[in-house]
Design brief:
The chain contains no helices and eleven strands. It starts with a strand and ends with a strand.
Length: 125
Amino acid sequence: QVQLVESGGGLVQAGGSLRLSCAASGRTVSTYSMAWFRQAPGKEREFVACLRWSVGHTHYADSVKGRFTISRDNAKNTVYLQMNSLKPEDTGVYYCAADPTGSYSYTRPSEYDYWGQGTQVTVSS
């Protein structure tokens, strides 16, 4: 089993930055695909970014390309999401997810076996 714990959320003004962290325990996730999803009130959970396997292939939702960066520190068993130039529409609960198989369908929440509890990000205008 893998446990994921997110941190780093908070309230920030539009144009600001936040860095989210996702600390994994239970197993090393260095070979897992790791992703961030978010969910706004009344909306479905949506894909934000993914780092597949340990080779560093990254993928981003069009809405965050050029503003968000996903990275990992295998020594710390931790994944990060650096969020810059934040917009009010980035508001939501951000979830970390892990997929041991490296699925090509990395935008689908159903492909991920493990989830964190989420961290709230609120961007004010």
